[in-house]
Amino acid sequence: MLFALHAPNRLGIRRFGPQTALPRQPTPAMMKWFQQLPGVSAILSHIPPGQFGRYLVVGMWNTLFGYGAFAAFTALLDPHMKHGYILASALSSPLSITQAFLLYKWFVFKTKGNYMREWLRCVAVYGSSILLNLILLPLVVLAIRHTTRYDRQAPYIAGALLTGLGVIYSFVGHKKFSFRTPA
């Protein structure tokens, strides 16, 4: 079967072959469509211009850093202990939280002073996320091991999947709690 690049539809999405969509850069039509989704405009109206974009850029770095720390600790600990990935998650979390806190404070929310109070709030936001991650990680690893042949890779796959859960939760938590400024 031949695959061809089709002309873009009204949202600027080009189709390649019979089933795969390849989006190009967002067009005004795409952005207008996205903003018309239920709830999207209400959420975006509460975010200062540029803040969410900075959050996404810093968040991408934080995700790479956090997952990299988790993967490095897992690679170091798994050969020496059973379920080393659980300890790896517990060790990588404080390091990742502190690094994320500083970048969010300086580049995203741009708050002044209050380092200890904001850091403790940041720890509280991430703490619940870490607890949920520590509960879900063994369950997701077990599910991956029982449904795929990726036995040794299961902790890495599970860690990557669970990382996505924290992205939305952390933005809302940091915006409304960690870095909230008095009204």
What can you tell me about this protein's structure?
With about 180 residues, the protein is mostly helical. It folds into 2 domains: about 45 residues, no CATH class; about 130 residues, no CATH class. A two-stranded antiparallel ribbon has the order 1-2. The radius of gyration is 20 Å and the shape is globular. The termini are far apart. About 5% of the residues have low confidence.
Key terms for this structure?
single chain; 183 residues; mainly alpha; 2 domains; two-stranded antiparallel ribbon; 6 helices
Helical stretch tally:
6
Low-confidence sequence ranges? 18-25
Task: Write down the secondary-structure element order.
Answer: EEHHHHHH
Strands, total number:
2
Short description:
With 183 residues, the protein is mainly alpha-helical. Helices cover 67% and strands 4% of the residues. The protein folds into two domains: 1-46, no CATH class; 49-178, no CATH class.
